[in-house]
């Protein structure tokens, strides 16, 4: 369902985003259509819909291009995707130009800045590795602010020098215009940089520096652009010291103000997600809408929209990831990627298409070549200079190779192109030259530098990102290191980074968590706990995979010698964690998209497994009380003695007796129905498919919004009647087997669940009597019960709907030996107690 | 002071550092005895809030000793100097205190309070409890501890030896994590 939701959402948003102008035309269309002579059956309405239609087609075409490349891995290994997309853009542009003789499609600055860029920026901010980013914020800011100013100033001045020297022939320009040109082309483009750097896995410090710089300096470059644009409008004569100072002030106000707007919106989002529990379906929408609003608001206030959106994403990610439901988080994450990647693709394709238009090309060899040269050279000089300064202060200095890669990674991209299109042709006589130069620079950097980047990184032996598996030991140790450094700073009486970080952490824990996080989320935000949680989930997955490798989870039931260790080891971990697995979200990062798109078999199995474990867990923890309410008191008393070695648990007389009775009764039932010739369960094979929808409520069942999960389930059952009952039972087969292994007889369970939450002992006679009348309470659906075990009232509501005792019969028959085994062999008890056993015995 | 200088020139290179640390040492040493006692460290307010503060204080005192003089004070702090990349290690010299191994040793002994060369489950639990106490229940703490030991424990003795400790942190850039800039 999230997948469906996501895709529809994407479609709708894309269509909405692009069809805005078309609404107007639709209105006029309706106006003219009033005069008809006869009733048309079908009419051709191309004029009305052509705009959104074309846009949608373009989106489709660009994405198809991407698809085509991905089919050809050899190509993408050599040429970065961005380059390939530009090439495709050329081809498409050529076709269009060939057909129309004029370039009808162009990347409009408005479209670019308001429909394509925001999601990229938001995504970049949202998926920014926070700790790394803030840890290197100083360096990033130095590169982004000073570096960009340096690039702009040096390029502008150098070009001006060459222009004065007459190297460029006769162009109508001036110092300010060249500085403006310098500033618009100064910024390293995040789109291009990410596209390239994502493919070469450089070490994380280098990555965050390049990435952070490219993101922030976009904001800076737009500000610079506006300042210089204003200067050009003022004219050289009017500019005095006051204006320059004003320009500098406005630069900082715009940049800082934009960031502040972003932070405010981040706070808003975090606060909002605190209380969106009940509208989970549109919960992810808030992130996008508010993120977009942060962009627009900043733009409205003429502050830096890019910075605003970036900081909004960076600041809110931690809190919204903790606050929102786990599924909403993965929805946000993947939708964000769809948007960002999608518009990135469109941007590159259109960068290519825009080039095939003779009307924009003005060639001036000297200007273009000099620009290329200066950009390249000054980028390197700037990086070396700034790094040298930074290295005086950095704990871990950047080495020479890192600097080389940073310098070489100065790719220019779509932001520059968007800005250059914004120029006013009346003021800038050489606008076309600037456009062509920008395009050339973009192509040069994206294509050439992009292609050579990977070989260069390999050749220079740049430190790659360590593919490290995060372990608990590491995490704990990291925490210790943090505390240690703070303590040492305290002892040696210095106020350093660690001190500041510690202060901030304290502040965050004390106030921000309180303000911005739901109480449940607060608990889960501890990093050690988090990694523990993630490891457990990983274990659970591998556990299930292991099971599948052997055929099915039935190996759990068999408990062969080899399994015991495995079982014990992981079982212990699960059992401790399980109640938290759902109440907690998946943790801020690295939830693979596939986790919600998992193919049917594993998901079902895992799901069942979780359910199973949760069931066991609920005995230990008082999170969900069903078993406590429904099981024998005798059981409860003996429970703490459960272990693999103590088998006498089930020797409780009453219990054995009841299990016996129930088993007998189930046999009786099945016998009866078999006799009556009721249809055998022929739909077993379908059960996996059918289980898919049920998975959802399953997942939900443990989070805090059980209520509507059950709503869903109820609905499903009322529709799915007998078939679903049967299939559900089939689905839960392995699990039942597991239960059969010494814990609870499934049939027995089923009975329990359908009964009123009274002490079961008193109920025995009544249900025995009842059984004759209401055979439907005979295993209405094992699956269903396991899915919603927590609220007896629901079960009572469910019971009448499940009319299908008959179809379960063969299962029951098949199972009854197993359940008998459960009693007679008394297999090892479940791992939870094992975990505790380990705990206490050590 | 001159005598000390020669002693640990190899630890902290610039005299400015030594002077600065000496000032700090004297500030901490309220009774001007030339030695620091644990309560002198305890007087540092912020250190009292540090969950493992007392362990760190403990690390300054070698077993059986009640006081620490300036020499050892600096020696301990020298663990936190960033490794010097420009001067490659001289194999003939004794291993410097800011090498990876000695940094790890320092971290290890914060856990290993009974100095038996192993982090037992109880010792790990203690540290965990002090670092996590508010958020997590005791059962979870225990299972986290179990899990951590399981991860690192190669010889299955339910304790982490120094070798295992080092192995488990093999991928961590200790020099980044256990260095303080101003001691450079």
Description:
The complex is a heterodimer of chains A (about 850) and B (about 180). Chain A is mainly α and about 850 residues long. Chain A contains 38 helices and no strands. In chain A, helix 19 packs antiparallel against helix 22, helix 26 (about 600-620) runs parallel beside helix 32 and helix 30 runs antiparallel to helix 31. The radius of gyration of chain A is 33 Å and the shape is globular. In chain B, the strands form 2 sheets. Chain B has a two-stranded antiparallel ribbon with strand order 1-2. Chain B has a two-stranded antiparallel ribbon with strand order 3-4. In chain B, helix 5 packs across helix 7 and helix 8 crosses helix 9. Chain B is built from 11 helices and 4 strands, in the order ααβαααβααβααβαα. Chain B folds into 2 domains: about 1-80, Recoverin, domain 1; about 95-170, Orthogonal Bundle (Recoverin, domain 1). At the A-B interface, helix 19, helix 20, helix 22, helix 24 and helix 38 of A face helix 2, helix 5, helix 8, helix 9 and helix 11 of B.
